[in-house]
Amino acid sequence: MLVTARPSDLSQIKSNLLGTTFTVPEFDPTSAPAVTPRGIFVDLDTLTTPAITLTKLRLAAFGSKLSVEHEEAIARLISRFTLQANGEQRGRYAVAMPCGTGKTLALVCWCATLVRSRLPYSVLICASKVDELVAIRRQLKEVGVADDEVGLVHSLGYDRADPTDLRRPTDDNDQRRILLVTHARVKGGGLDASVIRFRGKRRSVVVWDESLIVSAAQSVELASLLPAVDWLLKRDALTGTENEDRARLRDYLERAVAIIEAEQRRLAKSTKPKPRTIHMPLMHEDGRTAFKAALPNIVTVEPIRTFLDMASEPLRLLGVRQGHGGVIRYDLAVPTDLDNVVILDASTPIRTLVDADRTIKADDWFPGRTIKTYGDVTIRWWKRAGGREAMEREFAKPRDQRTVSREIVKAVKSIPTNEAVLVFTHKPHKRQPDIGATLRADLKAAGIDVDAVLPDGFPRFSWATFGRETATSEWVRCRHVFLVGAMYRSDLDLGAALVGQRDDLTAAVSGTEIREAQHSEIAHSVLQAVNRAACRTTLDGKAAPTTAHLILYDREPLDLVASVMPGLRIEDWETETGQEGMKTEAVKLAIVAYLSALPEGADSVTLVALKKVITADLEVNLSNKSWQVARDRACVEAGWQVEGRRLVRN
Prior knowledge:
- By secondary structure, the protein is an alpha/beta fold.
- The chain starts with 6 loop residues before the first helix and ends with a strand.
């Protein structure tokens, strides 16, 4: 018998969620669902109670032991599905349950109970990848949901000769009670509007797995766009071209740049300029296609291609610290009629872009609750630049100079050979080193068997790239994680994203907000990546032991991660080069402060005098090479340059 939870307990949960009292009727499984005068089905016992019980049974079968607070979190999540499906609450609600606490399983069990209940509700489930949807489809099948109740929409490959292949897309999806689609298909407009409906009616509830980012922002930096246009105009002036489309393109770009430069002048006149929209010259779709085809096929003009994709819509200039700003726009990528959504997102409390969206409400029971503790989880942090460019420069060096590889080799050798390791790296770019492949080769050269297979038949090493750190449990057996760098987004990209999330092209965006968004996006990536590993497993409210090694310059993202992983330990990753790097950074900051404090008219300083002052103040000893690195970085930041044996203002 599945119905084991006490109705009075669920009644209290529902009362807390709604802010009103609620009486649960006795449940007779043979009777039709009761209907209130408002047309709402009174089905708490019919749907919610059995779904909770089934979820607990399934978690127990997987070896999970639930704490009291974890049990209540499961009950509240399932109650949320029911409340929104039957219309008692509407809106977009984010549920911040930790990774690995059974959010997806609870959804599967609720859907299975829904099908059995004969209640007239339907569900749209959105996840980031087809593989995740297929996994949900498999779990639904395991708990007895018939194939004809479940629809799957995608355009990727599947085994056409195998009618039982769970990757096979379905048709007649508007007749299927449960529909599975990817985020990209919903955002990209590739989903027939009728599919979102079930038998002619809007689906009762949408469940969105991971963060709901409603906007799709575009941006192009002026520091790359304007030189690209200038290069193209000068090139054609020197070499000439008889291409009519190219001539029309030059004329269009000249007029567009004039509009941009006029807006730059307007913004420069005021200390607090008011943002406004600007409009480029009229360009039809056929014209844009012809203009893009007329461009030479070289990297130099890629900013122009991006700009042409944006130029038919209202634009805005946004000033940021990097590259002096650029042109931005956005679309609302998620249809506004998807307005009854349960968002399953552990990152909600720390993600600034989610908070910027006023259409999303946090289910305020979850933040601050200790549903899961992380006392046996450690992040070892190496403070050094970890962005894509920094890591590509590092892995472009000869092997004997790759300090990151050397430190990872040392760390891996300290791990027992029967314990699995997960490695995240940046995706390879054209004409740049493949960081993952290079690190594999370095580990192998150091005598580490990167192809080793553990007794359970799984490989000892698993490899992934940033962007794959969400919504999968395939690496849960890995007790060790290496994050070889971190995902940094440009200031302009984040500024555009904030504007889009606020659904206001002229919204004010400060440098502080952009920096906070930068930290929160890194924190989101780190949180999700670490939770792909063993700590995803939850036993009696505790995460399984896991150690992560992380290369990251800023501390702030780690503090954000710790705020949603109670008990997490953050330690220094003791490296041979780490201490020298920290000294270099301290010297750089001291040089910047010294140069900034010089009075007007003091436009030069000798290198000898500078080094004497800085080293005396800090009481540090640096190698000559590290001193030069600190000095050169400080010059870039402070606007000075080296001339002979002196530093002079630019």
